[in-house]
Amino acid sequence: MSAQTDAEAQDNDRTTVATVCLGGCSGCHMEFLNIDHGLVDLVEDVDIVASHMIVDEKGVPEADIGIAEGVVTNEENVEVAEALREHCDTVVAWGDCAALRGIMSLRNYQDRDEMLEETFMGEADDESEVPFGDDEGIPKLLEDARPLDEYIDVDVYVPGCPPDADVMKESLEALARGETPEIEGDKLQYD
Ligand code: SF4
User: Could you identify the atom of ligand 1 that is nearest to the CA of residue 27?
Assistant: First the structure.
């Protein structure tokens, strides 16, 4: 049996993190990239095993920490959220949409079917249809958009639209140390 290399030993020590984008604008993930050079420090402690802007992994792999951005707005989001809860020890809601419903829930004030009709059929010709459901390969839109904890248990909330990059980094570092992040005072933001 070959001896474990230093790099392999370090990999085994790192906290694994998977992030997913539900019904969000990817703004939370963009802000995460604003950690900028801090990402280099972060990956010494954290192994990002899934994250659509960083890693080419389409599924939700097993991870110590699972992070979700966005509301639960369609049937696929429900499946991804449930997989996140099943595969990850700690689940984090990133941003106002996942934590509180946020701006992505404005659609709740309109009737879903009327909204789809208006969006897809307003200027369409007679051949057009509203793409709605599995037959078109498009996830079925739920009646309304809801925050993550209406579908699965959430352990940590990092509010903001988007949350501040430094707060995202600090909260992840705390979780990697096995601590509960303290997000209060100036670190709490709702815009
Ligand atoms: S919280 Fe803001 S930045 Fe994040 S997904 Fe929602 S709208 Fe986008």
Answer: 3
